[in-house]
Hints:
Elements: E1 2-6, E2 19-23, H1 31-46, E3 50-57, H2 60-64, H3 77-86, E4 91-96, H4 99-102, H5 106-115, E5 119-125, E6 129-130, E7 136-137, H6 138-145, E8 150-154, E9 158-159, E10 162-163, H7 166-174, H8 178-185, E11 189-196, H9 201-205, E12 210-213, E13 224-232, E14 235-244, E15 256-261, E16 272-282, H10 290-309
Parallel strand pairs: 1-4, 2-3, 2-5, 3-4, 5-8
Antiparallel strand pairs: 6-7, 9-10, 11-12, 11-16, 12-15, 13-14, 13-16, 14-15
Amino acid sequence: xxxxxxxxxxxxxxxxxxxxIALGFFDGVHRGxxxxxxxxxxxxxxHGEKTAVxxxxxxxxxxxxxxxxxIHYLTPLHEKLEKLEQLGVDIVYVVRFTAAFANLSPxxxxxxxxVALGAKHxxxxxxxxxxxxxAGKMQDLAGYAKGRFDVTTINKQExxxxxxxxxxxxxxxxxxxxxxxxxxxGYPYKIKGTVIHGDKRGRxxxxxxANMKIEDDYLIPKLGIxxxxxxxxxxxxxxxxxxxxxxxxxxxxxxxxEVFILDFDREIYGEEAEIEWYHFFRPEMKxxxxxxxxxxxxxxxxxxxxxxxx
Length: 310
């Protein structure tokens, strides 16, 4: 897959061959996004063209918001690019979302990007907007195209009697409802990181854990205990993950993400790994002593084994 990073107004690219372009920010590349991209690929294949995606980075709210804010993504850019490639996308244009780009008129966006990049067909969701303050709507796009490219609008994609959206998925993850989030995404929610040294207290409890340093701006689920899959070296292992502050032992510790990997005994410090999140069991709890904590961890392990045995 070819990836071009564009910074307005310097948008010259070598590849302006005819292509079908899918439009969207695509955070999460969820089932709604997949419908847009798959239709773009179907059209491109039908016409012997390449499938392209035009997306942005960072999230528009970083630039347009009145207050400075940090965005936590369902799929940071590198992860988004991986998922787009898995869907068969040939070319991705990543436009740096700046104030100058945000101030483009809808007409200028069409001319400077869609026409300039060789669009022969453009596909986007029914609620996609473009140009300054989102003034351009999908129903207007064919008029701006002036016959130079065709337009396909993807209708609202629904699940649980509501629109599938990144906002809904984000809310589900933040509330610990990973079952719903995974259903809307169409795959298990995943974060990546590096295994680092922790305080090794898990070993004394009989539950040694892989302590994870998450470097990207992933959205982290709420505090608590989860059933997860731990992926390392291309292999997947069932595990139970803890997101919390080890409140039984400390009150001033930073939040940690630790995974007790079932039936696993290997030194993996410094290695990159992934965590797939499946199911929330319980919130973080403070125990009066180690015995109560150990008993609860045994129950958590039993619950995790039962979950994956289903």
